[in-house]
Every structure is written in C-alpha cells, then in structure tokens.
Design goal:
Blueprint (H helix, E strand, L loop, with lengths): L3 E9 L6 H5 L16 H4 L9 H16 L12 E6 L5 H14 L6 H4 L7 H8 L5 E5 L5 H14 L5 E8 L14 E9 H6 L6 E10 L10 H7 L5 E6 L5 H13 L3 E5 L13 H12 L3 E6 L4 E8 L6
Parallel strand pairs: 2-3, 2-4, 7-8, 7-9
Antiparallel strand pairs: 1-5, 1-6, 4-5, 6-10, 9-10
Helix pairs in contact: 3-6
C-alpha cells in the first residue's frame, strides 16, 4: 500500500508559537486576551481583514506547515493537492452575529463584507484558494475528533489517487456562548501530508509515517470491546515502547486501549501529555498532541473521544524511508 507521510507541522495557538514551545509545556491557565494573535507576520498586511479569526489561524498554521515541509505549492499541479479541516466552532461566532442581526434588524442589515464568512471564507476554502489546492476541500465537524479525522480522510483520499499531497488540520474560535464542557480555547494546527515516494524524490525530511487509524461512534452503553478489531489492525506491527496521548479519552476507552496494548506481546504503552490533553482546543486538541508526539518521539498513538461517543485514533511511526 502507498505510504503517506507527514513532512511539515504548523501551529498557531496562545500557548505556543512553535512546536519547541509546545514541547516546553507552556501554561494553559485561563483564556488568552482576544488580541493574542497578530496576522501580519503570517498573512501580510492586506487581504485578511474580513476573514473570521478561525480562518486567519488556520491560514497561518497551513503556511507554517508548508514552510516546515519546504514545499512550494506553486510548483505542484493544482489538481494534485487537497485540503481537509476539522472544526466545531469556527463558524459559531459569525453565525451567531448573523442570527442577532436578522432577528433584531432584518437580513438587509447583514454586512456584505462579512457575509462571505458563511460560505467561501470558511477555513478550508481559503486554504484551497490561497494555495490553489483544487483536488478538493472538505470541512469535518465531528465533536472533538474531527481534527484527527482530517488526517485520516486526507490520507485515505491520497491512497485512492484523489491527491498526491495536501493540508490536514483543525481550527477553533471560542464560541460566543458558554459550552457545557470546560472553557474552550482557540487556535489551529496543520500538517503537510505527502505520498512517501514523492517526498523521497524531492529529498524532503519525513517527520513521521501514518501507520493507520480509525473512527467509530460508540452510543451510550456500547461495549468498548468493539474497538478490539480496529486496535488489532492499528497495532499490527507495533513493538517496544509506544508513546500514547489522548485528549478527552474517557476512562472506558482508555481502559480498553490500555488493556489491549498490555495483552499484546512486545508493546509497552508510555503515556505522554502535551498542551491540548484536556480537550480545551476542541478539534485542534488531538493535533496538538500529535504535534508533540511527532516532534519528540517520531512515533506514537493518539486517541480522542467526545462526550457524545465519537472515538478516533491515529498511529504514526518513525519516518524511515516511508515504504
């Protein structure tokens, strides 16, 4: 099977401006000031005024991921590149404002400049337009796990020949109203994915190879043993210490993962925790965890769950030759 590799990482969040800062364990105490992010160093002085904050975050993170991969999209065929972005709340503030205006003053009072945030200015579309990534652009919204699913979706499409490379990531903007979970934060994290032989041909540094993953929905009362099959496939060639991180992974699923790995000869689960482990960054949380695993260990397993019962997992292994 054609291997898909990670060649670049980019993140934009209040606790870290780079992966080394993320690994340093910056504090997550309290929400940041609203003006924590300056788009100019990332996006220039013009062209982003009417973009939502979440769109600005993910455009910056995508640019950083491409720079980290030393990849110039202009040198690639437009139809060979795709974009998949996970989010839960990127559109929530602007949609909330639209509702307030329509209810109080009528639809005629909506700002024409901002109205595009409801359609073409959504984050995935803007990445696609900025870098001429025309194979496809998708937005996923599964609670918490959509960020991990963005990598699963893009890599599956690449293996099927729908694209040769692309950007997978997640972006979040704090919702306008309190959520039932802990206070949510905002930011974005993106990865550049390439086919292994393409990365090798251009001499790219491979950060990690995607070794498999899965996404499931476990309704209340479901037997977590249904994860045994996907875990078996995911850990088929795993040996030795396996770094593990899991934002929001509830006790039931964590015990299943622990028990399965314990029963697998030659595999030792080593828990790691990076910023985002508490799920405060929603769909970006698992990707912040993944960024930490890739940078510090080059391999590992990320498992995330949502309160609604969504479960997603992704395993990466050392880059090697990607074959």
């Amino acid at each position: 099977m054609t291997a898909v590799v990670i060649t670049g990482t980019g993140l934009v969040c209040p606790i870290a401006a780079s992966v080394p800062e993320l690994l340093a364990g910056s504090s997550e105490a309290g929400p940041p000031e609203r003006n924590w992010f300056d788009p100019v160093p990332y996006l220039g002085k013009r062209g982003w005024k009417y973009f939502s904050p979440a769109t600005r975050y993910v455009l910056a993170a995508a640019g950083l991921a491409l720079a980290d991969a030393e990849l110039d999209p202009a040198a690639q065929r437009d139809e060979s590149m795709g974009v998949v972005v996970g989010t839960n709340f990127a559109a929530a503030p602007v949609v909330g404002r639209f509702d307030d205006v329509v209810i109080a003053e009528g639809a005629d009072m909506l700002s024409p400049a901002e109205a595009a945030n409801f359609s073409v200015n959504i984050p995935a579309s803007q990445i696609s337009m900025k870098y001429a990534m025309r194979a496809f652009n998708l937005t996923l919204t599964d609670p918490v796990v959509a960020g991990l699913e963005s990598l699963l979706t893009l890599s599956a499409a690449m293996r099927r020949g729908r694209a040769r490379l692309g950007i997978a990531g997640a972006t979040e903007e704090r919702p306008p109203t309190p959520q039932p979970t802990a206070a949510l934060n905002e930011g974005a994290c993106c990865f550049t994915l390439e086919l292994a032989f393409d990365a090798a041909a251009r001499g790219a540094r491979v950060r990690a190879t995607l070794a498999g993953g899965f996404s499931r929905f476990l309704p209340p009362g479901a037997d977590p043993a249904v994860l045994a099959g996907p875990l078996t496939a995911l850990l088929e060639d795993a040996v030795g210490p396996l770094p593990y991180a899991g934002p929001g992974a509830d006790d039931l699923v964590a015990r299943q993962v622990d028990g399965f790995v314990t029963s697998k000869a030659g595999v030792e689960l080593v828990r790691c925790e990076y910023p985002g482990a508490d799920g405060r960054y929603a769909t970006a949380s698992p990707l912040l965890q993944l960024a930490g695993l890739v940078a510090e260990h080059g391999q590992g397993l990320v498992v995330a769950t949502s309160p609604q019962g969504h479960v997603a997992a992704l395993r990466v292994r050392d880059g090697g030759d990607g074959t």
